[in-house]
Amino acid sequence: MASQVNPPRGMRDFLPADKARRERVLGVIRDTYRAHGFDEIETPVMEDSSRLHAGLGGDNEKLAFGILKRGLTHDDLQAATEPLDLTDLGLRFDLTVPLARFYATHRADLPPVFRAIQIGAVWRAERPQKGRFRQFMQCDIDIIGDAGPLAEIELITATSAALDALGLDRYTIRINDRRILTGLLSHWNVPADQHERALIAIDKLDKIGAEGVAAELAELGIATDGLAAALATEGWNLLDAAPEWLDLDAYRALLDLRAAVPGSELIFDATLVRGMGYYTGTIFEIAHPDLGYSLGGGGRYDGMIGRFLGSDVPATGFSLGFERLVDLVHLDDSSQPDAVALLHDAAAAPAALGRLKAELVGQGHRVRLERKPKNVKTTLDRLAAEGFTHFAFVTDGATAADLELRALG
């Protein structure tokens, strides 16, 4: 029986053309963020298991992949009361927890306000489905050390610039503040120990509607008078007749933020939750009319780094949903260097082919040597699909000046 050759469920192989396209999209994002003053860092794909399960990652902690301790014995297995007892490391489920640990480790070597880029794979034990994978790429920017609104302004401006550079249009950024959500829950007399459960219910609004949210809150014993009106609150016209639950300081701060980034389409949404429990202030999420899910999001998480340092450090971050974004954008290929395929026969001298290839590469081309097949058309079709733009037949002793480059496709 043949062995299984597919990748693990929820993980993917990428063919060369797919990989090249992903790298081009990542290059646009990376270059845009660097232009906005952010510096790229790298952290290990693994962190201590205790850190990944310290209450910083919300529901994602339940999806963390654990790594078994080395040298486990039968006695260790018998003594364990839960699976985590057998692990000492785990794969990172996001880039925020590693960043908090990174900053705590290297704070003395970093500027007072640190602007970080992180681009890398993360792993979650999801149930695989369309658009949801167990290994996927995240693109994060974070600002650590700035407690004022400038951090949010920079993050939203840089993220909008990256989306614009990718040619994405018609997107909006929904925005809210955790203080507004807290005020909403307090207005409904929700006990503090039930806030997170109530927010989880509100976060399902787009899936189960206002009636479904009301039913879930009622199960928690929460009165929902005025719920429908609150859940329908959207836009920037609340100051004239502000609802009782609205935190006016937080709302005015969002108005100021909107005025500070006029090039971005910001929409106030009082029901925007963002699922991570570590958010403490402004939260935001990218929406697109063609999609039923977000393209990224983030917010302020001032309390996280203090868990490592013992003193709070302000922090705000914005993450792009790369796997969803990469299938949505279409980059112009015209600026890419010519990719040339040289088709040669078996008699061609290897040393001469090597010199010819080096000469063309030196001129700025991407070059591949291909043995000339009997069926040239099939090979040319494959090369065109792989992104090659030109080809030439190579004769013995040919130089770059002798080649007749022909267009592919």
3D structure, described in words:
The chain is of the alpha/beta class and 409 residues long. It has 2 domains: 16-326, 2-Layer Sandwich (BirA Bifunctional Protein, domain 2), CATH 3.30.930; 339-407, no CATH class. Helix content is 34%, strand content 19%. The chain has helices at residues 16-35, 49-52, 74-79, 96-106, 150-165, 178-187, 195-202, 205-219, 227-231, 248-260, 306-309, 322-326, 350-362, 376-385, and strands at 39-40, 46-48, 66-68, 87-91, 114-123, 135-144, 172-177, 266-268, 282-287, 296-300, 315-321, 339-344, 366-371, 390-393, 406-407. The strands form 3 sheets. An 8-stranded mixed β-sheet has the order 1-5-6-11-10-9-7-8, with helices on both faces. Strand 12, helix 13 and strand 13 form a beta-alpha-beta unit. The longest helix has 20 residues, at 16-35. The chain is globular, with a radius of gyration of 26 Å. The mean pLDDT is 88.
Key terms:
alpha/beta, BirA Bifunctional Protein, domain 2, single chain, 19% strand, globular, 2 domains, eight-stranded mixed beta sheet
N-to-C series of helices and strands: HEEHEHEHEEHEHHHHHEEEHEHEHEHEE
Proportion in helices = 25-40%
The average pLDDT value, as a whole number, equals: 88
What would you report as the Rg, rounded to the nearest angstrom? 26 Å
Uncertain stretches of 5 or more adjacent residues: none
CATH C-level label of the largest domain: Alpha Beta
Q: How would you name the oligomeric state of the polypeptide chains in this document?
A: single chain
Tell me about the largest β-sheet: 8 strands, mixed
Q: What overall form do the CA principal axes indicate?
A: globular
Compute the number of helices. 14
Portion in beta strands: 15-25%
